[in-house]
Give the backbone structure.
Amino acid sequence: MPTELKQCLQAIKYFHSLEPKEIDQIMSFFREVHYKKGDRIHHQGYNGLGLHLIIKGRVRILVRLPSDSESEVAQLGQNTSFGEVAFIEGGPNTASVIAMEDTCCYLLPKEYLFVLRVVAPETAHKIIRVLTDAIFQRVRAINNEIAGVLDDINKSQPEVKHIDDAEDEHDIKLTSPQDLDPHFLTQLVDFKDYSLPEIQQLLKYMKLFQASRGCEICEEGEIGNACYFLIQGAVQITLEKQGKITKLGILGPGESFGVISLIYENVPRTATFTIRESAILLTMDQANLQQLHDDNTELWYKFYYYSCRCIVANLRIGYKQLIRLRSEFSHVVDLTLENTFQITGA
Amino acid sequence: MCRVLLYLGKQTLLDNLLYQPDNSLIHQSYDPKLMTHIQNLAGFGMAVWDNDSNDPKIPYYYKTQELPFFDKNLKRLSLKIKPNCLLAHVRGVAYSEKETVNQENVHPFMFDGFKLALAHNGNVDGISEIKHELADHVSPEILKQVKGTTDSEWIYAVLMSQFADPTEFHQIDEVTTAVKQTLQIFRDCRRKHHLNIASPVNLFITNGNFLVVTRFVYDFGRFLGAEHQAHLQYHSLWYTYGEQYGYFDGEYKMKGSDKKYSISFASEPLTDDKSTWIEVPEYSLVSSWYVGDEIMVRTEDLEI
């Protein structure tokens, strides 16, 4: 295989955790691609191709937002990469990438991630893990950026109130996961990629509970050890800065939260999650995740991968909020595109 | 689920908004990108304000139960009319004999002599059970004008009943207050009747001079079973802003600008490229109004 690719893989931090034989193994999954000067490699807003490693040449990263023409936010050269988010999650690119000169890249197409997960699950897991680590750092950075922006604009931004407990009950009731219809779960967003038998297996490692409106499931800054899957109802995500609360987003049936505390030990929660509409939830803690690993490693790999995709979803929620704040309060805050790119990536 | 388009700003040909964009409202009526289980085959309506027209404060008001993509008259009109403000709606209903497809049920709603028009994307579950309660919150004169069978027309009737004189031009703050009161009245009636199935209420309200929009769902995420697929997600709502909507740089889009001279809200982005569109947050009310020739936008949380 080309020595340039090997050197590039060794130079890029995402692949540092791989053994030499694993490097050799994944090299066959890369495809050499050539772009001419001016070629648009990634289109913002459209689905990305996969993870690009630049072997030779240089690219411009461009971002277009409402009211703006395209602005250059960064340039990347040899032994750097772009397309990590789309590679993990498969969603749309948050920036465009254009070749500044004739450029040679090695592309790990996002479709190959599935193949890699099947033929070399441990290697795929290591790559997913390190890419997720980088994305998680961006989640933290984007939440900090939002909190800072809100601090600047809090005079004009209406504050989100604490959710009133409009119902009598405020407790959490535990019931059995066996009460759930696994056929129904297959229709929910974060379960739709699991087969029915896999869902039935996963339910053995989860607890089911009901929580009423206003109940705080996770608090920003606390050390947690579990994640949650919303089956019915709604959850509000908020950040708090100097006593002021701002809403980051809303989760509905089939969406999960708190995943960071499941796959990272002793990491503080990045936001507060409160029941907005009376909810039914599943939860899995680290002990049960370890048990799943011991009992069924194949399913554990899959569960871990989809948990990592949830962290990418967190990044997109923060990105959406940041773009909206930039649009509505551009006269109050100086939220540069360069800063936004630094924390969201291409 | 219906599809709605709301525009305020510099004059642009109606055709540029309704037909030409790659995901135009007319296109969405038969091939929506963000929903798959229903098509909008129950009629089309619009209210169009044109500053150059006769009596510009009164909109051109068009309603038909015909399908918009077969409507030759609509196409001909769209090549002549240049709105400063547009509220257009394609109606979608369940494939059921229980639905009533007629002109009275086509949005937007704008009763005789009133200045505010309203369109709705969503449905209030159990509306028939609470109509008699809602009637207590509707003035008799307004009740007489309710001609259709939709939940949306009842939202409009309750909203307009919040004003001492519904035929006046109201300030935007009065309208946002009335919207919140209306949503609260519906919430109270639903609670009284123990109705707690998810009910989306994306509202689009204008008088031709300002816009008030909600992205809201009562009891979001609560459903009876797998048959309530539509209740698993929040109804989509997006906006974009800039100089003017039209044909620029080889495509139909909002032309970028440092200031907001035009703004458009839509159930789905009008362009395949969503990068210049912003998703309205869930449980939110968005207001847009003029200060001089520039449009302001403000989003606030709806705690109903």
Summary: The domain at 130-344 of chain A is CATH 2.60.120.10 (Jelly Rolls). The radius of gyration of chain A is 21 Å. Chain A has two domains: 3-119, 130-344. The longest helix of chain A spans residues 121-153.
